[in-house]
Design brief:
heterodimer, A: 112 residues, mainly beta, 7-stranded mixed β-sheet, 0% helix, B: 113 residues, 6-stranded mixed β-sheet
Chain lengths: 112, 113
Amino acid sequence: EAQVTQNPRYLITVTGKKLTVTCSQNMNHEYMSWYRQDPGLGLRQIYYSMNVEVTDKGDVPEGYKVSRKEKRNFPLILESPSPNQTSLYFCASSYRQTYEQYFGPGTRLTVT
Amino acid sequence: DQQVKQNSPSLSVQEGRISILNCDYTNSMFDYFLWYKKYPAEGPTFLISISSIKDKNEDGRFTVFLNKSAKHLSLHIVPSQPGDSAVYFCAASPLYNNNDMRFGAGTRLTVKP
């Protein structure tokens, strides 16, 4: 089954404790991205990757890091999480940057 | 700066009737428009799209209309079914480019049996 998986689905953590949210797709997609969804704001892009070892900032990259060492995986790293990073996070992938995106099920992160 | 706006946070419709979800945008460079549907505890799934060279695109019960002069698009669902109850996101981008895509805040549609 073609899918994008994210782990964990739910995470509660404390300010400053480094965390990683994993994202994996099994569709051999080149393009992957991370979004956060906040009430009243829709989805905003954090980072994207056009292919292996090619990443770039989206609209709201501050406080986040990503890496793309393999085509299928695109982890999101919060080196020092803060409460304003409490949000619902979605990973997405597409065949190319011009194609419709497939989204993962989301990770709800709470930073206290 | 919200470049894509869905001004109705929620909409309730009777089963079998038409659902009309609206979306407005401000950036005249947007050329490609999409609707995504999201169920609780799931990620958004692509529903239908339209490019600026068209003013209408149909896919079964779903039709998207684009009015470029008014910077407005709408999604029509006919007939509405209870399984259509979800949050619908409108998205727009210049050309076909996921990097510059902007999403609206979503409209929660409830279809009552």
